[in-house]
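Quiz preparation item.
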């Protein structure tokens, strides 16, 4: 195929600005999908995406518009899935930047636009939802021109819901986005930008051919993995997978090579021919660093190996999370997993339970701390259970975030109060327009991971948007909080918290556990402790057995004798008794959405 007739684009935008709906209209307009088979969010293949109404995985499709082939990639909007966006941009020459005409520029709009500029891509800006009564396209276009420097006259007006302006948008893509480069006579270099595991066909990889041509039955080499396979099937998504005999420069398609080991086809891998290999691989991707950590444990210990296999297969489809084995005295064998954010963690856990039929316990989310020991060495600590003893710790540094909040200016007061309550420091405050303001804060990551986003939305009636990026480490007065049940520490409930918040957190957790742990035949103390100092305590009172039920009258000394005997028995039981905490208590106490 002549590369001059190809355009490769991604659709990027903030959450809920209409990316998936625009993809639906493009599929309809280009006749890629039979109207009888059309449904909303057509490219979103995961059940969880449809339920939540969000895109989690970037999806690619090939459509024909007039005389041009357009490879379209629909990307996620949520900040936790920004890695999917950056991978998609590596396979494109241009982007469609979609902005809601009623809401204007949001935090992820800025982030994704700067990401496209870093990749040196052509930006086609469009205002969506112009059919809404609240839409103000002139004001929004002026805001885009002022903030992003895109001329208001070049910004298109569309309605992804009604289809208005979509044809003009496709014409603009053909006109403004350059065709892909690449030489068909050079040695083959193709970039894998996504993969998933099919239990019948093995690994199915999405790839973009940069140089050369790959044909069916070619013997190919994966340059980073160093393995050799035969290209069993090549194809394109129309959006139905359709096999082709070859893929040339600039084309995007899929490859099936009978790969069973998921480690061989990671995202960022370069594919070349075994006979005439390329001299150097493509740059690939810089792997993102996890920001939030939690332990995942199977409720049934026999499912440990199944969990390992499931994580391997899921990681092929989502390379942005990490995992390594760990053990817990309370929960048994499991994995310490790293994620890009709280929503990412929730989605991965839910996909493991749905797609692989596992029942899991997730521990409370934590972040990666840098601990300087009294010996002068520095260690990374991702779990409270791994924290060295307090007498060996000289200092603890916590990861910081630089967060951008864009909101109507009337909510400045409540947002500054929220930032101060999370130990944040205001960096800058910029008015994007008389009605909208951007606040940039530097905040500890640990203060963001639990309910910051929910608080932000509730305090601004849903109008504020959030974006964040890592911003180094900073020393803080942090302590390890232990939970003791009947004087025994339970590592699954341990947490690293700021000293100022330790009492409130400990009090909350022991009160919750008091309601969850069943009554024993003796009193069970539940304590929150910092080192050897107890800061909060609750007691699960003993279950009382009526030993006097069979006494009908008689001398009072007989009753007293029975009560004394019961008291001695309870004392002896407490001395040797061990409290069994039921799985339901762990699930409830460690619930992510608490």
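Solution:
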């Amino acid at each position: 195929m002549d590369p001059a007739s190809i355009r490769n684009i991604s659709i990027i935008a903030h959450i809920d600005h209409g990316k998936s709906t625009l993809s639906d209209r493009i599929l309809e307009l280009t006749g890629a999908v039979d109207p009888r088979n059309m449904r909303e969010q057509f490219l979103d293949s995961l059940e969880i995406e449809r339920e939540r109404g969000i895109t989690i995985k970037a999806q690619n499709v090939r459509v024909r518009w007039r005389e041009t082939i357009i490879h379209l990639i629909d990307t996620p909007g949520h900040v936790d899935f920004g890695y999917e966006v950056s991978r998609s941009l590596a396979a494109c020459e241009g982007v469609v930047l979609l902005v809601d005409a009623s809401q204007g520029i949001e935090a992820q709009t800025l982030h994704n636009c700067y990401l496209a500029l870093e990749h040196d891509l052509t930006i086609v800006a469009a205002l969506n939802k112009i059919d809404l009564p609240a839409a103000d396209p002139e004001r929004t276009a002026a805001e885009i021109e002022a903030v992003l420097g895109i001329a208001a006259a070049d910004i298109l007006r569309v309605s992804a819901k009604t289809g208005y302006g979509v044809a003009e948008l496709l014409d603009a893509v053909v006109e403004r986005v350059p065709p892909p480069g690449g030489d068909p006579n050079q040695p083959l270099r193709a970039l894998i930008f996504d993969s998933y595991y099919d239990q019948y066909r093995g690994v199915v990889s999405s790839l973009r051919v940069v140089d050369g041509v790959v044909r069916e039955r070619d013997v190919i080499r994966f340059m980073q993995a160093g393995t050799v396979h035969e290209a069993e099937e090549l194809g394109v998504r129309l959006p139905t997978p359709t096999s082709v005999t070859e893929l040339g420069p600039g084309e995007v398609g899929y490859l099936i090579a009978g790969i069973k080991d998921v480690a061989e086809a990671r995202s960022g891998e370069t594919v070349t021919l075994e006979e005439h290999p390329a001299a150097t691989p493509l740059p690939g991707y810089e792997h993102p660093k996890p920001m939030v950590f939690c332990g995942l444990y199977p409720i049934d210990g026999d499912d440990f190996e199944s969990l390992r296999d499931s994580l391997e297969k899921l990681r092929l489809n989502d390379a942005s999370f990490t995992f390594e084995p760990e053990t817990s005295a309370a929960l048994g064998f499991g994995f310490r997993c790293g994620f890009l954010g709280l929503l990412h963690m929730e989605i991965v856990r839910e996909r493991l339970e749905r797609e692989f039929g596992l029942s899991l316990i997730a521990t409370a989310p934590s972040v990666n701390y840098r601990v300087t020991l009294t010996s002068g060495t520095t260690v990374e600590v991702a779990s409270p259970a791994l924290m060295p003893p307090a007498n060996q710790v000289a200092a603890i540094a916590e990861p910081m975030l630089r967060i951008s909040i864009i909101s109507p200016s009337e909510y400045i007061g409540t947002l500054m109060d929220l930032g101060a309550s999370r130990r944040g420091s205001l960096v800058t405050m910029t008015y994007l327009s008389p009605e909208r303001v951007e606040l940039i804060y530097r905040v500890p990551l640990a203060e963001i991971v639990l309910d910051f986003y929910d608080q932000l939305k509730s305090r601004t009636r849903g109008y504020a948007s959030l974006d964040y990026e890592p911003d180094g480490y900073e020393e803080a007065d942090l302590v390890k909080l232990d939970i003791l049940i009947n004087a025994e520490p339970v590592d699954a409930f341990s947490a690293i918290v700021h000293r100022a918040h330790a009492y409130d957190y400990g009090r909350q957790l022991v009160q919750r556990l008091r309601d969850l742990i069943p009554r024993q035949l003796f009193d069970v103390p539940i304590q929150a402790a910092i080192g050897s100092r107890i800061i909060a305590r609750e007691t699960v009172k003993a279950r009382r057995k009526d030993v006097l039920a069979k006494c009908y009258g008689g001398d009072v000394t007989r009753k007293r004798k029975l009560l004394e005997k019961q008291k001695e028995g309870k004392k002896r039981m407490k001395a040797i008794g061990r409290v069994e905490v039921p799985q339901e208590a762990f699930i409830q106490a460690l619930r992510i959405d608490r």
